[in-house]
Each structure stands twice: as C-alpha cells, then as structure tokens.
Amino acid sequence: MNNRLPPGLSKHVKSGLASKQNVKLPTLRQPKAKLSRAQGDDMLLRRALELQQADRLPEAEELCHRVLARTPEHPMALYILGTLGLGFDDKLSIEYFARAVNQAPLNAYFHFSLGDAYLMVGEHALAIRYLQRACDLKPDFVEALCTLGRAHLEFDQADCAISSYEKALRLNSDYPYVRTGLANTLASIGRMNEATVHLKEAIERRLDLPAAYSAFAGTRRFTEEPPELGSILRELSNSNLEPVSAQRLHHAAGKMLNDLQRYSQAMDHFQNAKKAADYQFDLEFYRRRVDSMIDFFRLEMVAPKVNYGDPSDVPVFVLGMPRSGTSLTEQICASHPDVNGAGELTKLMRMASAIGFTPQSADALHRSLALMTIEQSRMLSQEYLSHLRKKAPTALRIIDKRPHNFELIGLIAVLLPNARIIHCRRDAIDTCLSCFISNLDRGHSYTSDLKTIGLYYREYDRLMRHWEAIFPGRIFESRYEDLVSDQEGHSRRLIDYLGLAWDEACLGFFNNDKSVRTISRWQVRQPIYKSSVKRWKNYGDRIQPLIDALGDLAEV
C-alpha cells in the first residue's frame, strides 16, 4: 500500500476542504490584504494535497504540521496526516483519523477512512462501527458500502455483507468493485452459482475485469473448456496491460488449463503470472531470521516463562505452510458445535510487531520476551483473548488459522501456555507447487519462482523441527495425506486433541455454512477427494528446480 488517499476519495478530500463540519471555507482569491488564518490553512492544505499526489510525502507532512501549529486539531490536517501514514504506521494513522472524526463528527469521509484503517489492521468490530456511520451520514456512499460489506464478511457476517453489497449495487450498478465483492461474499458461503452470475455480468460489462476473471476461475473445477478462457487469452494479447492485470489474467488462464489437465500450458501461464507480479524475496535475510529465532528460543529461556501468560484453553492455532490443508482442518474442527473458526487473524502478528518482531529484525522481540514479567505477559495474552472473544463469545474453542503463525510458536507458548497448536503438513512438493500456482499476494513473495519456494520450505521445516524439539508433545501434527486416507479416524484424533467429545457433524464439514475467505473456498465445500495427493507428478520435468531445491525433503 502506498501513502496516497484511499481509492476513489481524492476528489472528496478536496471538496472536503470546502465543507469541514458544515462550515464552508471562504473562496480563495488573490487578495492584496493579508490572508486570514482560515484562508492560510486552506492554502497550505491544498498544497499538501498536491505534494501528496506528487509523492512528495515529507513535504506534505510538514505543511500539515504547520497548519496544526497554527490551528490545533484542524480536522483536514489531521485527516491528510492519517492518509500519509497508511501502510507505514497504521496505528498512528488511526490516531489521526480518530482525532479528525472527533473534530468533524458529521464528515462521512473521515468516518470512512477511520473504519477502513481499522479494517486494514483486523479490528473488524471497530471497522464496522465507523463504516456504518459513514453510510448513515451519506446513504449514497458506494465506496463505504462496499468496504462495509468486506468488513462484515471478514467478521463472519456474510448476510450483512451481502446486504451492503446489494444496496451498493442498487445505487450504482456500474461501480467497478461491487459485483466482484458481492460474488466473493457469495462464494465464501458456497453459493457458487449465484457468484458466477455476478462475475459473468461484471465480465460482460468489463467492470474490474481481471479480478472478475480471476474470481470466476476459482468458482469451480472445469471439466471442459469454458468460453471465458478464450476471452482471457485475447485480453492477454494486449501489450499495454498493467502488471497486476496481467498477473490475474495469467493466473486465471493457468487455473482453467490446470483443471483441464493441460499442464504444460498451465505452467506457462503460472510462470508468466509470477513475472508480471515481479515479487522479490531475500532468502539469505530470511535464513538469518530463522537462525535468530532458533538461537533465542532455547529451552532454558522458554521454560521459566511458560506459565506466565493466561491459562485459557480457548485458543486453537492452525498453522503451517499455505496450501498444506489448514483451511480443510479448520473447517472440520469448526463443524463441531463447540468450536468457532475465526479465520486468518492478524492480531497475534500485530502484537508481536508492537514488541519488536518485524520483517527487518527479531532482536527487539527477543529483548522484550527476555525481560517480560508475569504482569506484562498476562496483559498481552488477555488483549489477544479479548480480540478472540469478539468472534465467538461462548465457544469452547476458537481457531486462529493464520498459516504463518508457525513463526510465532515461541510467543504463543509464553503468552498462551494452554493453547492448542495444530501443525498442518503435506507432501513438500505438493505444498510448494500449490503455493506457486495459487494467486497468493505479495506477502508471500517467496513464491516468486520454484527454486525460491523450495529453499524457503527448507527454512520453514528447520524452524518447525526446532519448535517440536523444545515443546515436545505440545504440537499436534496433522498430515494431509493421513486425513485423505482415513477421514473419520484422523478427524476423531483432531477433536480429541481439542479436548472435546466427538460430533458426527465433523464428517460433513463441506455442509458447514460458515464463510471461507481463502483460496480454498471451493475445495472445502467438497467431500474429501484424493486427487490432490502427489499432484506434482502431472508437471514432470517442469518442476525439477523445485525438487532440486527441496533436496532430501522431496519425496519422489
């Protein structure tokens, strides 16, 4: 994310300068007399907006602070400062947006940006509160309605999400993102046919076209060539495609061709999608990071602190490499009446970042944990549990299914000593290939090429073996192949590990009406099938760089 105004709002900010809190600013002229303070503030903020649009962010920030020095708590200055921090310091952005809202409580755009910022950091209840207020203040605010729909969906309120999107559709049937948003919501709860209708209409109208094709490709497994494949290939012949559009279109074509068992052609498109995405990943840096975690989290450091945190047995962490069966495992467990599947939560990662665990360094986290007192540990664990309880106040177990929490098992052990940890494993080649051919975002930049993902997998495996060594018996290993070969037996072992009585509903997990927001949403609506085991063999020599990179972890 860059430091620009939220999509579709730049024109509103400029108009907002003339309508802060129902107070019309004077029209600017070229007066000979000295400007009033209000006129001077207005001129500085207009200039700040111009600098922001020109990507001259420090200069824009400086002008906003000049206005605040002259007029403390100026709402538009606070608002622009909030937009400048997005993606770099989201917490500070939220503080600025909240101050702007306090100063101008009838400004719908300020409420929208505060709600959107809360959504970015995973605070869904607060996001919904402010986005709903924006919609109440401006009932025709289509952007806010669509963002409210996304917030409801991520908070597992699919019916409310559908209502928001349908209202937006009635207001503006040509808004680019409303049909894809509505379709994604319908697909998340298994209503694939309805989702397809909206996606085809978006395609026909050429609205949010690459995203519509990408979403359409994920609504089913194709057994015969759809006409949309030819349309995608024609779109790809346009040499002026933006990289993100090319990435989505190549991935959609690859997905369809993979379904049709035209594997060599599919691989061509998957590789072209990666080239368009141009992901960069520093493998040596990540190796040093894993070294740092292994060196720090030794038994002698962890053992004295394992009872520091909250003793709650409500949290369940389902983690592992993406595409290793985490969504399927969550869906099976969440089909139990006493279990809630909360999806991929970012709260633990955000808490870790707040105490120093960042992509750049883990040293601050290590210092924080080394010096952590019982009181500090309890405070952090209760903050996490409070966030978890918002998802399901009465559930006996709540699942946090963020695969990359495998990096935070040491922190989990300190803060939540009685939490269950389910580690999903799958054949290494199948896992890596599935990651490569899936449309994962830039946060998974290690999927940039087959060799890099194989080497990354080795680092993940090295870290997981360390956790298993220092926390023996604490982590339940759930192998995808075992689940496929013995669904009931393995499902019973999962529920037993959760400390719950068996419930037959876990065998019909594909009938669970809970929303699924990952790229596995089609698969988890199907009964378990075995065709995903050793799928990598379909690609033959095309994936040899992956097999070579995995080395002894590749079961050929």
Please tell me about this protein's structure.
The chain is mostly helical. It folds into two domains: 1-138, Alpha Horseshoe (Serine Threonine Protein Phosphatase 5, Tetratricopeptide repeat); 283-553, P-loop containing nucleotide triphosphate hydrolases (Rossmann fold), CATH 3.40.50. Helices cover 56% and strands 4% of the residues. The chain contains 27 helices and five strands. The protein has helices at residues 10-16, 37-53, 57-70, 75-85, 90-103, 108-120, 124-137, 142-154, 158-171, 178-188, 192-205, 209-217, 227-236, 243-259, 263-277, 283-296, 299-302, 326-334, 347-354, 363-370, 374-389, 409-415, 428-437, 450-470, 480-485, 487-497, 544-550; strands at 315-320, 339-341, 397-400, 420-425, 475-479. It has a five-stranded parallel β-sheet with strand order 2-3-1-4-5, with helices on both faces. The radius of gyration is 25 Å and the shape is globular. The two termini are 40 Å apart. Residues 1-32 have low confidence and may be disordered.
